[in-house]
Design goal:
The structure holds 2 protein chains of 2 kinds.
Chain A: E1 2-6, E2 9-11, E3 33-35, H1 37-53, E4 56-63, H2 67-77, E5 81-86, H3 92-106, E6 110-114, H4 125-133, E7 137-147, E8 150-156, E9 161-168, E10 171-175, H5 187-193, E11 198-202, E12 211-217, E13 226-228, H6 232-245
Parallel strand pairs in A: 1-4, 1-6, 4-5, 5-11, 6-10, 7-10
Antiparallel strand pairs in A: 2-3, 7-8, 8-9
Helix pairs in contact in A: 2-5, 3-4
Chain B: E1 2-6, H1 12-22, E2 25-31, H2 37-51, E3 55-59, H3 62-74, E4 80-87, E5 90-95, E6 100-106, E7 112-116, E8 129-131, E9 141-142, E10 146-147, E11 160-164, H4 174-184, E12 187-190, H5 192-196, E13 217-221, H6 227-230, E14 238-243, H7 250-253, E15 256-259, H8 262-276
Helix pairs in contact in B: 2-3, 4-8
The chains are: A alpha/beta, B alpha/beta.
């Protein structure tokens, strides 16, 4: 079974983020990046499916040159090959078109990606990809069962409900975080990754984006909360006093 | 502006309110068919081609997330998802898990597609027509929804909840917050990653995929406050946040907060609470 995993590179969790001088995105200089967490789970799921059913795992990512590092990490964890679409864009339709163009040539049996990115948070790339490639899809997947020519997946609904969905292969799934346990790259894996194929391709050209980010900014506070800092002991004392005598909830 | 509102049971009133704010010429439809992504994409495509709306408005539900991006792509558009406010044609959505807002401007002719965040509009009532789609084949076959097991823990009944997030770092540190919950007679809850990791059972999860709670006091410890968590607890009467990151979105909704290391702050709180308790 041939499985492609679309991963995105995002700033390292808890990085201090600053807005760029144009006010249109974050300042990326001096930031460290990592594989978007839900995409890491998608990759893990692909590796486990390969262990069960055999075949090949391809990691693919659209982004600037720095993305190659995350693709190498995917290879070190066990992916067989990598494809880097060299493009710096926030237009997810362009990203999805580029992924679709590269993946059509590969004709995978299954395409996995995380349910959303930690930066833009659109949660759409996988679904758009399915439309562009003419494939069935399902989202927020907690469990994947491969049957001959078909898939049976467990989809998460709101408020603790789930649903099983059956669909033919090839198909696209967006994977929920936490459905498996992430592996670390071994030293051997890191060594091997250096010899694995990492192909660089150019992005698809698309029509003008139908929506653009005009500016980004810190949200206005709706509530004027009282924030205490300083040493832990005195902050704790102030808080408990407020909860007792102002909010009267203790 | 002509607006088509797609109404499902979840968030119906909010979608109607937003649609009538965005435009004066509003048509609202519910879809009379069991859900699959293929069926709903085809159904709403039919509606859009019949009605030619400039804007299509959805609630940002799991169902919308499953098919609306596909529908928008069919029209060469991106769904502007999880919108919290709007001055059409500029729509505001959160990025970086709520750390920043982004003003997104629609470019070019309609149809454009937006989904609104739960809780961002006050629900209102307006007429809704039922749309029965032409028969289409669906590649997805959906089985009946189910729940894993009866919930042993009902967080919705708790007066005080102490909730823990990624800031706790590892499972071995859970007793730090357990001690606080015990001192307060509170239920212990958690954000999604903690339950995913198996550090606390799933039934203690608060947020869009877990329980929605509205206690008297909600103490968020080491929780940054991603929207998926906030929708599950922002109805609490008093919200307390303890986090080392002053810019964490949880402080946006907090009535009281402490910026600091939870491993110092929480034990100090426990001591302080015990101090004030009447001695037997």
């Amino acid at each position: 079974m041939k499985i492609a995993v679309a991963i995105k590179q995002v700033p390292l969790r808890d990085s201090p983020l600053r807005i760029n001088t144009a006010g249109t995105w974050i300042e990326e200089d001096n930031l460290s990046f990592e594989i978007n967490e839900p995409d890491a789970y998608a990759l893990e799921e692909a590796l486990q499916l390969r262990e069960k059913h055999g075949g090949e795992v391809i990691v693919i990512s659209a982004g600037p040159a720095r993305v190659a590092q995350s693709l190498r990490e995917g290879l070190a964890k066990g992916a067989d090959r990598a494809i880097h679409i060299d493009v710096a864009t926030l237009d997810i339709l362009r990203v999805a078109n580029s992924l679709a163009a590269a993946l059509k040539a590969e004709a995978p049996d299954l395409i996995l990606t995380g349910l959303q990115s930690d930066d833009l948070g659109y949660g759409q790339t996988g679904v758009i990809l399915a439309e562009l490639m003419g494939l069935p899809h399902s989202t927020i997947i907690m469990q994947v069962e491969v049957q001959p020519g078909r898939l049976r997946v467990k989809r998460e609904l709101e408020d603790g409900w789930f649903q099983h969905i059956d669909m033919p292969l090839p198909a696209v799934l967006t994977i929920q975080s936490g459905l498996n346990k992430l592996r670390y790259a071994t030293l051997m894996g890191i060594k091997k990754a250096k010899t694995k194929e990492l192909k660089v391709v150019t992005a698809a050209e698309v029509a003008q984006a139908s929506a653009v980010i005009e500016k980004i900014y810190a949200p206005e506070k709706n509530k004027q909360g009282q924030i205490f800092d300083g040493d832990a002991k005195s902050a704790a004392a102030k808080l408990v006093e407020k909860l007792r005598f102002e909010a009267r909830v203790l | 502006m002509s607006v088509l509102a797609i109404v499902e049971q979840r968030m119906a009133g909010e979608v109607l309110a937003a649609a009538h704010e965005f435009g004066t010429d509003v048509k609202a439809h519910s879809i009379d068919h069991a859900y699959t992504a293929d069926v709903y994409t085809a159904a709403v495509e039919q509606l859009v081609r019949n009605l030619h709306p400039e804007l299509v408005v959805f609630g940002h539900t799991y169902q919308t997330r499953d098919y609306a991006p596909k529908l928008a792509a069919r029209f060469g558009r991106v769904l502007i998802g999880d919108v919290i406010a709007a001055k059409s044609p500029v729509f505001v959505r959160q990025i970086f898990q709520g750390k920043f807002n982004a003003d997104v401007r629609l470019v070019g002719e309609g149809p454009h597609f937006v989904s609104i965040q739960a809780g961002a509009w006050r629900p209102s009532e307006a007429p809704v027509e039922v749309f029965t789609p032409n028969p289409t084949t669906s590649r997805q076959v959906a089985e009946a929804p189910f729940r894993e097991s009866a919930r042993a823990v009902d967080l919705t009944a708790a007066d005080i909840i102490v909730s823990v997030g990624r800031g706790i770092k590892e499972k071995e540190n859970i007793p730090v917050v357990e001690a606080l919950a015990q001192a307060l007679g509170a239920e212990l809850a958690a954000s999604r990653p903690i339950c995913d990791a198996g550090w606390l059972p799933m039934e203690r999860q608060v947020g869009s995929s877990g329980q929605t709670v509205a206690p008297k006091v909600y103490i968020a410890v080491g929780i940054s406050g991603a929207i998926q968590h906030l929708v599950g607890m922002k109805g609490a009467k008093t919200i307390v946040a303890i986090n080392k990151d002053r810019d964490a979105p949880i402080f946006e909704v907090a009535d009281y907060g402490i910026v600091g290391d939870l491993f110092e702050v929480v034990p100090a709180l426990v001591e302080e609470i015990k101090k004030g308790k009447p001695r037997p």
